[in-house]
Amino acid sequence: MESLTLLQLNKRIAGLVMTPATSNIWVTAELSDVAVRGGHCYMELLQKDPASGATVAKARAAIWANQFIRIRSDFYAATGQDFCTGLKVMVRASVSMHAVYGMSLVITAVNPDYTMGDIIRRRNEMLARLKQEGILDLNKSLDWMEPPLRIAIISAEGAAGYGDFMNQLTSNPLRLRFSTRLFNAVMQGDKAAPSIIAALEAIAMEQERWDCVVIIRGGGATSDLLGFEDYNLAAHVAQFPLPVIVGIGHERDVTILDYVACVRVKTPTAAAEWLINQGKLALDRLDLIGQQIVCVARDYLSGCKEQLGTLEGRLPSLATAMIDRGNAKLDRYTLALQQIASRHLSPKMARLDALQSSIQVMTSAIVQRRGARLDALAQMLDALSPQATLRRGYSITRVDGKVVTCADEIPAGAVLTTTLASGEISSIKQ
């Protein structure tokens, strides 16, 4: 029985597969296990079932070093992405059968339009779904706190983009004082979307403490940003109750978050500059209001000054006129009062005169009666007085100024003073 060596078999297979029909064929596939070794780029090309995601075809492929630099550079310039696992591509390849390494595909060109189209197609599908659900523009419609000074930050701790953002924010020339807090999250790869969603949910639990949310990461390969092309993440941002600022990657980088966030800026530094500018706008508005107040006050004071000048010129004549009017009014009131007094006081005066005459007569009679009574009382008082008693021959005897009424009460040798109607007599009791 005739047999072939393995080498012979591989050569026979090579003769069968390496034909014009398998050369320079455009193939669409998904990249997997991309690796660069020795200047060459090695990978696997996959085709997956759209419904189940199961791999239905696989082939090894390579881009040789003599072409890889050019192909890689052109692809990055067109798409902003490097070759990486998960990327969908359209490549021009030829079947190669090596006796030692087996069959593989040698890639000689890559169509960047296909890759960009696939990313854009998936993004457009997500945007259409968000619009259909009525949540696409929810975050964009939120009102801003003026100025936003309390900032919740979603980024990776220690990342250069986060550091640039904080340096720009804290060293602002306006000396605005921002209150910030980092909600740490994974910002690359498959874990980026669920990690950022978890950070958003943590912020939502204390949303009254914050004015806005900033989602930032620095630049890198555009393929690193594929983790942000996630419907659930976009839906969370679109429906978030606080305004969201997105500053991811470089100026050329775009993700679906740029379409749903309230504000999209180019870089983390640009996010800080936007916040600082909002503070500047608020200060400018305050300055404008202050200037308007000064102008209004100045115009008002100027008008008052003119009015005062006019009044000052009119005051002398006004004072004279007011005094003349006052004097005339006083004259009228005086005349009226005199007339009223004359009408009302004349009868009263006549009555007073009559009362005065009556009082005089009554007073004279009362005085005469009181005088006669006083004379009678005087006579009575004189008759009852001690002096009258003494004139009738009686006397008053005192010892030490006290009237004596009993002789037994006077001790022997006491000096007696006897008062007569005329004079006094001193004696000593034996």
Please give the order of strands in the largest beta sheet: 1-2-3-5-4
pLDDT averaged residue by residue = 84
Largest pleated sheet: 5 strands, mixed, barrel
In the CATH hierarchy, the architecture of the domain at 130-281 is 3-Layer(aba) Sandwich
Q: How would you describe what is shown here?
A:
- By secondary structure, the chain is an alpha/beta fold.
- Among the domains are: 6-110, OB fold (Dihydrolipoamide Acetyltransferase, E2P) (Beta Barrel), CATH 2.40.50.140; 130-281, Rossmann fold, CATH 3.40.50.2300; 389-428, no CATH class.
- Helix content is 48%, strand content 21%.
- It is built from nine helices and 14 strands.
- The strands form three sheets. A five-stranded mixed beta barrel has the order 1-2-3-5-4.
- It starts with 5 loop residues before the first helix and ends with a strand.
Tag the structure with descriptive keywords.
430 residues, alpha/beta, OB fold (Dihydrolipoamide Acetyltransferase, E2P), Rossmann fold, 5-stranded mixed β-barrel, 5-stranded parallel beta sheet, elongated
